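F.,

This is the one I mentioned.
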């Protein structure tokens, strides 16, 4: 094959949910049977065409494969499962002609059906994006299915746009997979690599035959400890890509390596060089989260292109163009010495940031010039490529504007607040600890008088269209504060009455007043700003609007206390106060990059500590401080993890250690690999921890048992990320699994996560089954508990 040149400016991927969440609306209309599949496909194609038109308008070229081909209806890992026809045994009936999975079948994998739970879902590296975990066994079918990629390439080519078809790479796909239930003990999905590589070869050949000049294979798992060991000279990555590159019929290959540094950076000739020697035509390096390659580590690029991911695609701050241009100029000299060429790109896909700052009409006046969303980042990539090719004078205006914005941000009032800094400086070790757990447990048992296997929910109840309509009307000023308060109190009363009718033991107020579990807190803390249209995909059709942490944090006044106190006045049962923890507030916000994360976390923790004190003073005896993102921010390399776990645990303890012994502190974690951080979970020193466990069928209990975890624990028995209603028998089976390995005296019964995204019919049915199963299990325990 004749190798085409790689574009001088490119991005790894683009937000696919749409600037106004067009994909979300199309998907949910289809899932609700309001539209057929043809209408869904038409809406998706219209969105993709609009995205490509925007990108070419910003300066990416339509004919040089600089346009990303990474669109997915639900998830890029699910798309790789479809491309490999890799159906788990329980979904074997979804195989169509030649074993292929169609769109409807892929949605069953993602969402489940009446008789089957969907694929497990977990976090994509250290982000808040969730991917669907492939299930691979010894007999899982592996057969190339390039239909979706081919159809997309052809449709865009007909419109004059040459996209770069994109697929999760074969090594990352298998490293992200889990062994299918029933696989032999010790089975490793990576053992199927030869068959997977053969299928990828067939897919690449089909793309070449269709005229695709480039194909992108994303191999982010090579930045993890296990993956890095496979990305050193002579190891699996070189073998795999030597085989793929040796094919005579294939597009030029671009391998991306975002989210950190791939390969063993202690050894010369690391990943970029070895993949080039393997015959890969372009290799990416993340210069934001990963190391900048030096001459020692570049190795022999053998005529390949190194794509420098120098524009941050996971945060929203404006690029320091002058500093980036200096880095690129120095790197280009080393790359050319190594026999390669240099191109400019993003650190990862732009799927982790919103579409456009221009959509934000109501940001504080100081903020817009500090920011860069996806469209602004595309412009930064193009600007840097131009500056690299033509010199600083060619981008003088952009350099000056960036310098002015960065200086304005550094000197702006509120970026640094003396009183906040002084409070942090005066902390002592006593501010980070409570009484011993046994002392607290005795005080709480006396105060709360809960039954064995107490039942509760995680916090939120369904946010109905009526709730959203009332919130929007209040925001628009069409209903006043008094009318909105009346509405919210009625909604809280309805939720409390429902929980009492169902027989739950510890109640919540339902969070009707909260738009989002992080944004609500950001709106009530100084130092944060919210967006109107800053949507980022979380999973499937679900999106979040991360707030922007730009300054020092404090809490002007109590804000959760009135609503929770009102709910508590409606019942004689214990009612939980609901707060979001400091690490999660950071993880699900766009956070400032001008100070250590630990400093920001402790500022948020002190604001929460004040709120906990006010809840306690109002008579709330159970307070939940959710940290679902604790595992999410864990660094990908083990050598970096202890430092992170140290400050993240400390920030939680700083927030909660002002509580009295009789106040029961709960926390909640979801959709992560908890065994890796079990010591940190224990170190949080929470009295009760609820944790996702339903989709994995209580896998986490093995980690808890092995560790000897002795605190209160609520492994989830109801998967709220699927619309299906678990039967009483299904919930009872999960409770039995938990009881087989955990202390019944410590066990709580609860869903996996909050119920905000569910409907009331399925919620009520599911919780009724949960309570019924818990009551039956309680009866069988009898006096032994």
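My design for it:
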């Amino acid at each position: 094959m004749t190798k085409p040149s790689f574009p001088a400016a490119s991005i790894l991927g683009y937000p696919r949910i749409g600037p106004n969440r067009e994909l979300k609306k199309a998907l949910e209309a289809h899932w609700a049977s309001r539209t057929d599949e043809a209408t869904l496909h038409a809406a998706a194609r219209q969105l993709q065409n609009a995205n490509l038109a925007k990108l070419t308008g910003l300066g990416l070229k339509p004919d040089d494969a600089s346009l990303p081909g990474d669109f997915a209806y639900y998830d890029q890992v699910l798309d790789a499962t479809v491309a490999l026809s890799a159906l788990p045994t329980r979904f074997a009936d979804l195989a169509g002609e030649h074993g292929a999975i169609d769109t409807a079948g892929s949605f069953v994998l993602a969402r489940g059906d009446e008789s089957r739970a969907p694929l497990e879902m977990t976090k994509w590296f250290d982000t808040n994006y969730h991917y669907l975990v492939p299930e691979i066994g010894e007999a899982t079918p592996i057969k190339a299915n390039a239909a979706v990629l081919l159809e997309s390439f052809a449709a865009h080519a007909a419109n004059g746009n040459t996209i770069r078809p994109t697929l999760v790479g074969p090594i990352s796909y298998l490293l992200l997979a889990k062994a299918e239930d029933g696989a032999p003990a010790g089975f490793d999905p990576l053992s199927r690599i030869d068959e997977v590589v053969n299928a990828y070869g067939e897919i690449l050949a089909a793309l070449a035959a269709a005229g695709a000049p480039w194909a992108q294979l994303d191999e982010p798992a090579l930045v993890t400890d296990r993956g890095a060991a496979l990305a050193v000279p002579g190891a699996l990555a070189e073998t795999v890509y030597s085989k793929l590159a040796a094919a005579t019929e294939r597009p030029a290959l671009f391998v991306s390596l975002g989210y950190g540094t791939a390969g063993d950076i202690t050894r010369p000739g690391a990943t970029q060089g070895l993949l080039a020697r393997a015959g890969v035509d372009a290799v990416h390096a993340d210069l934001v989260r990963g190391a900048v390659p030096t001459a020692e580590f570049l190795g022999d690029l053998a005529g390949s292109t190194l794509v420098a991911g120098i524009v941050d695609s996971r945060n929203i701050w404006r690029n320091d163009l002058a500093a980036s241009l200096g880095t690129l100029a120095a790197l280009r000299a080393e790359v050319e010495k190594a026999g390669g060429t240099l191109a400019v790109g993003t650190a990862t896909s732009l799927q982790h940031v919103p579409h456009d700052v221009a959509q934000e009409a109501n940001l504080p006046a100081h903020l817009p010039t500090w920011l860069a969303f996806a469209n602004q980042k595309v412009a930064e990539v193009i600007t840097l490529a131009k500056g690299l090719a033509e010199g600083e004078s060619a981008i003088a205006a952009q350099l000056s504007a960036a310098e002015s914005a960065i200086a304005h941000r550094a000197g702006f009032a509120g970026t640094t607040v003396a009183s906040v800094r002084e409070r942090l400086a005066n902390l002592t070790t006593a501010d980070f600890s409570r009484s011993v757990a046994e002392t607290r447990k005795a005080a709480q048992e006396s105060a709360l008088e809960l039954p064995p296997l107490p039942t509760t929910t995680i916090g939120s109840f369904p946010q109905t269209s009526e709730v959203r309509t009332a919130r929007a009307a209040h925001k628009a000023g069409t209903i006043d504060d008094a009318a909105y308060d009346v509405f919210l109190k009625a909604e809280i009363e309805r939720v409390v009455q429902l929980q009492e009718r169902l027989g739950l033991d510890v109640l919540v107020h339902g969070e009707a007043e909260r738009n989002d579990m992080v944004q609500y807190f950001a709106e009530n803390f100084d130092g944060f700003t919210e967006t109107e249209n800053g949507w980022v995909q979380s999973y499937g059709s679900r999106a979040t609007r991360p707030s922007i942490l730009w300054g020092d944090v404090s809490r002007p006044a109590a804000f959760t206390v009135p609503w929770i106190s009102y709910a508590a006045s409606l019942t004689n049962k214990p009612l939980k106060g609901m707060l979001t923890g400091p690490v999660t507030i950071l993880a699900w916000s766009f956070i400032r990059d001008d100070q250590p994360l630990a400093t920001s976390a402790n500022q948020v923790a002190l604001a929460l500590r004040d709120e906990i004190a006010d809840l306690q003073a109002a008579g709330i005896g159970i307070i939940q401080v959710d940290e679902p993102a604790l595992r999410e921010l864990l660094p990908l390399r083990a050598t970096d993890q202890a430092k992170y776990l140290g400050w993240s645990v400390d920030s939680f303890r700083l927030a909660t250690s002002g509580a009295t012994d009789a106040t029961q502190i709960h926390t909640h974690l979801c959709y992560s690999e908890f065994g890796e951080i079990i010591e940190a979970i224990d170190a949080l020193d929470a009295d009760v921890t609820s944790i996702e466990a339903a989709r994995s069928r209580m896998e986490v209990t093995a980690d808890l048992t092995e560790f000897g975890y002795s605190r209160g624990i609520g492994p989830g028995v109801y998967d709220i990320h699927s619309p299906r209603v678990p039967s009483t028998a299904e919930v009872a089976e999960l409770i039995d699994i938990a009881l087989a390995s955990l202390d019944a005296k410590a066990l709580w019964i609860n869903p996996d996560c909050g119920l905000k995204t569910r409907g009331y019919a399925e919620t009520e049915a599911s919780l009724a089954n949960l309570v019924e199963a818990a009551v039956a299990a309680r009866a069988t325990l009898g006096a032994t508990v």
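The CA atoms of residues 302 and 339 lie 5 Å apart.

Talk soon.
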